[in-house]
Amino acid sequence: MTPKRVLAACALAAAAALFVALIFVPILFGASQFMFGGSVNGGCVDTSGAGAQPAEAGDAKSIPANYLDLYKKAGKDYGIPWNVLAGIGEVETGHGTSNAQGVHSGENYAGAGGPMQFLAATFKSFAVDGNKDGRKDRYDPADAIPTAAAYLKHNGAPQRMKTAIFQYNHSWDYVNMVLAWAKRYGGGDFEVVQSNGVDCQDNDLPANASALVQKIIAFALAQRGKPYVFGATGPDAWDCSSLVQAAYRAAGLGIPRTTFEQWPFGLKIAKGKEQPGDLVFFNSGPGTSADNPGHVGMVIGKGKMIVASCSSCVPAIGVKTYKRPDWIGVTRPLASPKLKGKVAELAAQQQPGG
Question: Which GO molecular function terms does the record list (predicted)?
Answer without folding.
Answer: cysteine-type peptidase activity
